[in-house]
Design a protein that fits this description.
By secondary structure, the protein is an alpha/beta fold. It has a single domain, classed as 3-Layer(aba) Sandwich (Rossmann fold). 37% of the residues lie in helices and 12% in strands. It is built from 9 helices and 7 strands; from the N terminus they run ααβααβαβββααβαβα. The strands form 2 sheets. The protein has a 5-stranded parallel β-sheet, with helices on both faces. Helix 1 runs antiparallel to helix 9 (270-279), helix 2 (41-58) packs across helix 8 (224-232) and helix 4 packs parallel to helix 5. The chain is globular and about 50 Å long.
Length: 285
């Protein structure tokens, strides 16, 4: 388990610990969705590797002091993928792992969409799509105004980019030269019920962000080393916000879920959960 204080930013090149962390998130988030009878497992699994690298190697935080002023800010704009976020926060030391068993149960603090007023480590209430990036722009602008060095990272879904509020925020980030802001697009090419390109086409996505004044990098969103190298390289260019298009697979890690649109919010049966867990190696304690 990672340190409950600062992540190990200077750890060796090996990402074995981060890979193990990602497996724990995958297994736990699937168990949470099954137990709750609700959730969005496909999107949870596509974002896991991004979360694992950020929380074990990149983000500056102190889980014992969630409001530490110098912490980096992380916002999960695709808030429906809350199981992955809650598992990440619990295994990072923000709250007891045992609390994950209450996910979406009556009176649980672990809502289907994250609530910063209830859970330590949650920076913004998200779920209604298109809100996370505008909030992140405000956070990054605040750091610039007060002269602080903390950074803001935000993960959006790709279908979420069909919301116009994202592009207003993109213009503002470029205008204000927010090079302390990093957007990560979870580009799994599937949204609720359909492929993104059959709903409202996003391509050429990298060119669109470049046209809005951002510096763009495209990466394999499941290659831990590539993600680490990319996140450590921010800001990519002084005075310009950073966009990382992470090419991912919905349901990554479970063969019968991968690239299947129905797993956007389908709940596995007991047999399917057992099969999924067999495909994800358990992490020794």
């Amino acid at each position: 388990m990672p340190s409950p204080t600062l992540p190990r930013n200077d750890s060796p090149a090996s990402l074995k610990a981060t890979a193990a962390f990602a497996r724990k998130i995958r297994r736990t988030s699937l168990q949470m969705v099954y137990s709750a009878g609700l959730g969005h497992p496909g999107g949870d699994l596509s974002a896991v590797d991004v979360l694992a690298v950020l929380y074990t190697k990149i983000l500056r935080f102190d889980a014992r002091k969630p409001s530490w002023p110098e912490r980096d800010r992380f916002i999960l704009s695709k808030g429906h993928c809350s199981a992955a976020l809650y598992a990440t926060l619990a295994y990072s030391g923000f709250f007891p792992v045992e609390q994950l068993a209450t996910y979406m149960k009556p009176l649980s603090l672990l809502n289907g969409h994250p609530d910063r007023n209830k859970i330590a480590g949650v920076e913004a209430n998200t779920g209604p799509l298109g809100h996370g990036l505008p909030i992140a722009v405000g956070a990054a602008k605040a750091a610039k105004i007060i002269g602080e060095s903390w950074r803001t990272f935000v993960v959006t879904g790709d279908g979420e980019l069909q919301e116009g509020s994202n592009w207003e925020a993109a213009m503002a980030a470029s205008h204000f030269h927010l090079d302390n802001l990093t957007l990560i697009v979870d580009r799994n090419r599937l949204q609720q019920g359909e492929e993104t390109e059959r709903t409202i086409g996003l391509e050429p996505l990298a060119d669109r962000w470049t046209a809005f004044g951002w510096t763009v990098r495209e990466v394999d969103g499941h290659n831990l080393q590539e993600l680490l190298d990319t996140f450590r390289a921010v800001p990519f260019e002084e005075g310009r916000p950073n966009c990382v298009i992470a090419h991912t697979r919905k349901g990554c890690g479970v063969s019968f879920m991968e690239n299947r649109v129905e797993w956007h919010h389908r709940v596995p049966t007991a047999e399917e959960l057992d099969e999924a867990l067999r495909e994800i190696p358990e992490v020794p304690e």
